[in-house]
Please model this.
Amino acid sequence: MFTTNPFFELSGLISPLAMKVYVIAMVLLFACGTLLDTLHKKSAKYFFENSENQKKIARRQVSAGEKVAIAVKTLAVDVLASGEFCNQRRRVAHLLGMYGFVLFVVTTAILIFGYAESAAPAILPLLWHVGALMVCIGGYWFWFFIRVDVAAEGHPWYRVMRADLFILALLATTTFALLWSVFAATFFFVLFIAAATVLFGTVLWSKFAHMFFKPAAAFHKRVTKADGSRENLPEVPDLTDPAVQQRYPDIPEYLGINPPNMGLGIKREAPSHY
Model:
């Protein structure tokens, strides 16, 4: 079952050409949606203007070699390892969803463009199913247990906002893809295509394009830290420095293992709000 190419089985009902046209159409929808999102939110304009403003207050010039090193570190830490997440559960859920989606999309393209009319190596359909399953595990874990408005604000899991469009469309796409593959039912295939169309066709209104904006923002943040501009934020001193502790004598007292006179604070009650 999991080593069978579902698109090869589908070729008896829908021509391989139609499948390829649909995939190309989704790629174009995604590209156009991302471009329109950039123009609408003026994110690229803000990014470049902000970069120029930071250069004016920079304490030093970052060389091209340093920028390459920063880009590599951004890719390795912030992108490939989702290092921005301090919450380890959120980080694992994001990694499952990210790598699962990449695996799912890449194998979908290979199975349709390369093996829609012939048998595929067993590993490709297996990876397709694994990718979809990874998205489901990470996505449902996030939706029911990790979301801020559920975990911190106490809202019910079924409370839906426009910001949830991306994760819901993504989960619907992979869930119905798996159900279609398992049960070979036209009903699930129709839902799979509908969900995928919503996923790739609503980039302008969803968070889909964040995969481009967030790495750029992470790179910019590291550059501003290297050139000393720090996005115009005050520099955080080394709190272990004796000179700093002498200037602020209450630091050792209030940053100890068990700070006195602090009380329980927000821990007095269950988390139901920020």
In short: DSSP finds twelve helices and no strands in the chain. Residues 6-232 form one domain. The two ends are 46 Å apart (CA to CA).
